[in-house]
Amino acid sequence: MKIQIADTSQRLGEAAGTLAAGLIERTIAEKGVAHIILATGTSQFETLQQLIANRAIDWSKVVMFHLDEYLGLPVTHPASFRKYLRERFLDQAPPLQAAHLINGEADAEEECARLGALIEQHPIDVALVGIGENGHLAFNDPPADFDTEQPYIVVDLDEPCRKQQLGEGWFASLAEVPAQAISMSIRQIMKSQHIICSVPDARKAPAVKDCLEQPVSNLYPAGILRTHPSCSLFLDQDSASLLSDVVTAQME
To answer: Where are the domains of the chain?
Structure first.
């Protein structure tokens, strides 16, 4: 894992988005098409803006999947990740070759099977992800399932995860936050050729510390990214503030 600490969340996003754009361009040049995963949430604002700002990418040669979606949440709800991706990415970029969004209002098992069959036909080249306040990767809350080979699974959202969504302003009360979601599985994420993880903000600092300093475990799901052969982790000064001197020295 390569770790970069930026001065601000804006510079973090610029660096992460620039790397992602370069990898997508290179993949298109080599393969004729790039398959990508996009994350959502406040941690991705700057990264996606930087990615969209790159005019060199031929988006007609890009196939997109996304990580997770709440079960039963209408696409019109402010917290809908489909709504997020449409407004913050798909409506801002030129038309993609394909965009495979998760329909959280469909039958969950059928939707997992549909998306699983699609992503198995399109091995992922570049994945953009984040880390949750509880250390989750996508919506794989601890203790995460590190073993399932299913590309998409139905997961129960733990209370820290649901409180994070409330704290970020997506819902008016904890009771409104759905208890379940469809999430890309850990093993499916780890099959990506390149992973770019963007994690700004001080509230993520405890999770960053645990995922980087504790033994790799499903209790700290995003820590498994340390085992990926091509993963770049982008932090800002706030999210890196609790890291030990030993870890920071290894980055120098």
So the answer is: 2-251
